[in-house]
Design a protein that fits this description.
525 residues; mainly alpha; two-stranded antiparallel ribbon
Amino acid sequence: MRRLLITLLVSLLLLSCQEKSLTREELLLNLDSLEHKFTWLDYRINLEQYELFSTGRSDSLDFFINLYRSILANPDLSSMMERGKRLLKDDENQRRYVLIGERIQRGRIESRPNIIHLRDSLSKLISNYNFRFDGAVRKSSSLYKKYRSDDKRVERERAYRAWCGAGNEIADGLSRLFRLRNQEARKVGYNSYFALAFAYESISQGDYLKLIDRLDSLSASPYRKALDRVRNKLDMSAIDIWDIAYSSKKIRDRVDRRLPVDIQLKLIAITLKAIGFDLDKLPIYIEAKQEQGLSEGSHTFLIKPPYDIRIVASLSQGMQSTSGLMMEIGRALHASHIKQSREIFTTISPAWSEGMAQIFSSLCYDSLWLANYLSLPSSAVADYLKAVRDLQIADLRMNLLQLKFEYEAYANPNRDLNQLYWDLYEHYMMLPRHDDLSPWATVVQYMTNPVKLHNSLFADIITAQSRSAIIRQYTALVDNHDLGAVLIQNYFRFGSRYEWRDLLKRGTDEPFSPDYLISALELID
């Protein structure tokens, strides 16, 4: 027994010495190894996902995802990163340390068997959910379009309720997923999973919540006025969520008719060439097809940036399809112009990637583009942009609702989350509540990309700030031959070598600020 105790003490002493003796060279070797592993697995997973989207099947996607998870599940990684925190002094390796550290910390939690099983089960349930409507199975996108555009109000309501159908079946499981993530985050020293995620953001939780509150306060009055315009257009005293988009259907249909499927890619290529990008000379492969019925959207696969980027697009008539394709091509353009020797820097932070994509998508809603490329008369352009602005304000309010809900759900996942959602809904959307529905449980990002939904808000701000700076210097974005060079020089070529806030300041000469989004949406008179 004494010998056993001595052996145990010696082992613990050796282990302690090993933990304290991690050198900078050993840490760098480990970072190099992880970087190569992550880069290779990103390549394989993206390739398999592309196969799944383009052909409907993938033989090895689950294998590579599980291999990725097995690497992240290694308990020694977190210890190594914690011990090596102070060993790196140069900017490049500190940046690598942050990017790899975030993957490890989030990935370890998402790789827990209990979380994997629950998250994957919920994801499969919602992706394979049979939305039934009038005795037939319908696509989610079909119901989404119907609840926003059907001429019969009762049909719009029925479609909305059917669209929310999966939520009631998923709600309990998603509540449990919030709790499980919190439990795992507490094991590594965080109060909640939300706090863990924001430890790697360039904005503090406090400043983030202040941003939400400021946008809530400033958008409340313009949103009420937008709701009043909906009531006036529809001649209704009481409206609901399924009336908002429908109220502008007439002017949106007028624009949509000018964007049939067969001209969308050609129109985008011409638009891009006028700002310095020739799609025929770039490593971007676009597989565009017409979706029978309704579009399921466009998706970009960064197979091996900057050399191999692919887009799968299911197109349908209208601006939603066109701007969605333009957005994904913008994302691809960014990835194809990265000039970094470090493989890890060819990955792009979600907020920055989305922001770059939105800069291109915003061209489709530019008054010059609508007039010059769609030949819309000035009166129609003005009417359309007014309608778009009202919808953007409504979308902002919904985004704020979803962001505040996610924060509160992680703050206390044991409460009645459905009641929480509808309490927040009444505040942000100012519309009747429907407690029999659980639309919050259909937000896929809550399941598959936890605490990342805020990147869409950051992207809105990035886009508005960047557009304003470019217009101040060059007068316009559309048909601006310098635009491509400006974006490549100031934004694209760096990949994730620098934190995205630094890149935004480089491109606009100002720090990250919501003021330009506030101005673009005319939230202040």
